[in-house]
Amino acid sequence: MKKAPIFDIAIVGAGAAGLQYLYEYLHLSENDKSTILLIDSGDRTKKSWCFWAENNSASFPFLIEKSWSKITYRSTTAISQTQEIGNLNYHYISSDNFFNYFFDEFIPAHPLVQHEIGWVDELNESGTVIDIILKNGLIFQAKQVADARIDRKIVEHQPQLAQHFWGKFIEFENDFLDSSAATLMDFSQAQTNRDYSMFHYILPFSERKALIETTVFSTKPYDEQAYEAHWNQYMADNFTGKNYQVIDIERGTIPMTVMPSTNNLGKIFKIGTAAGQVKASTGYAFTRMQRDAKQKVNQLPSNIKSRHLFFDSILLHMIKSENKAIPLVMDRLFARINFTKILRFLDEKTSIWDEIRIFSQLQIPLFLKHLLTRNR
Ligand SMILES: Cc1cc2nc3c(=O)[nH]c(=O)nc-3n(C[C@H](O)[C@H](O)[C@H](O)COP(=O)(O)OP(=O)(O)OC[C@H]3O[C@@H](n4cnc5c(N)ncnc54)[C@H](O)[C@@H]3O)c2cc1C
């Protein structure tokens, strides 16, 4: 068995979180001479990363492929509402662009980064170093490990709620889409399956190109056949008579789980989904991961607020035990609260008074019921 030199830090998992951590780590001048090992599975599954940010403060502005200053919500009764989102923009980065940048430009420009493809089976802390044991028998050593692997034990102890995605990048024959507004959620398609709540979103990249995605909150396993049927129905209902071709597809699942987020930067620490950076109730993670990477690199405490974890836990309980209520809660939220305020709330940037105002507009008895039954 071969032993490698001892690296200053190893990053396990070169997904959104691992690469954002690498980026922030190398932007700190005191890490200039550090040796870094990046180990990952080589999985480059296509993902779309959308996030909102104030003008001029977006993550990776040079990778953004499209931005929208307006968003649309479409209700269960097919009423569309579009609003400007103030000084925010809703941005799109594709994982293709992100990975190309990192693997073709950023990593080659940093010779002290060693990139290894492999599956990490185990991390063993022994004395001052950590042994990183790969499935293929290789062992590496590092003084610290940033670990993006999800702790399956945590997921298994919580309700198996997940967000499933089934989307297609399509090109219509003619220009007709309004590319100035992204449809964040469209609940207009009938919720025909009692096991999950579902919505669609539309990212129009131009007047004829878009990503249209079926999104499902469910405790059941991924069901591509069912999602494909929903997707086709959505197209038939909303784009009758429009010819299009499918350019690419996107599929994926993320756990809707409140993961413990820890400030403990021991020799081994979690990053990304594994560190609670995917907001459990919405699935948004990209900017949270960047913020978390900055904080961890600079040894600052995490600023996930406990009251937001509490709000998430109520919503998750509702999704899990009464998913038919979700579309109606969303209808009411978007009908009564300004969209910019909703985005700030989801970003955990609202004050407690804003949050009281938001909840007072929603179905209070329903929320109270789930508040009281959530730990049973
Ligand atoms: C289809 C889809 C769309 C999404 N859209 C958005 C969005 O619009 N906006 C947003 O903010 N978030 C979105 N998310 C959520 C979130 O941003 C992503 O899931 C994000 O990729 C999570 O980053 P991560 O690094 O934690 O995990 P990943 O990106 O999955 O990266 C983890 C990496 O670690 C590797 N790995 C795991 N275990 C091992 C091991 N034992 N050994 C070696 N390597 C290992 C994996 O193969 C993978 O490459 C989306 C997720 C999906 C699935």
Task: Give an overview of the whole structure.
With 376 residues, this protein is of the alpha/beta class. Among the domains are: 3-47 and 94-155 and 259-297, FAD/NAD(P)-binding domain (3-Layer(bba) Sandwich); 306-373, no CATH class. It is 29% helix and 31% strand. The chain contains ten helices and 19 strands. The strands form four sheets. A seven-stranded mixed β-sheet has the order 7-6-15-16-17-14-18, with helices on both faces. Helix 1 packs parallel to helix 5 (286-297) and helix 6 packs across helix 10 (364-373). The model has no long low-confidence stretch (mean pLDDT 91). Flavin-adenine dinucleotide (FAD) binds next to helix 1, strand 3, strand 4 and strand 18.
Supply database-style keywords.
FAD/NAD(P)-binding domain, binds flavin-adenine dinucleotide, 376 residues, seven-stranded mixed β-sheet, alpha/beta
What would a concise description of this structure say?
The chain is α/β, with parallel strands linked by helices. Helices cover 29% and strands 31% of the residues.
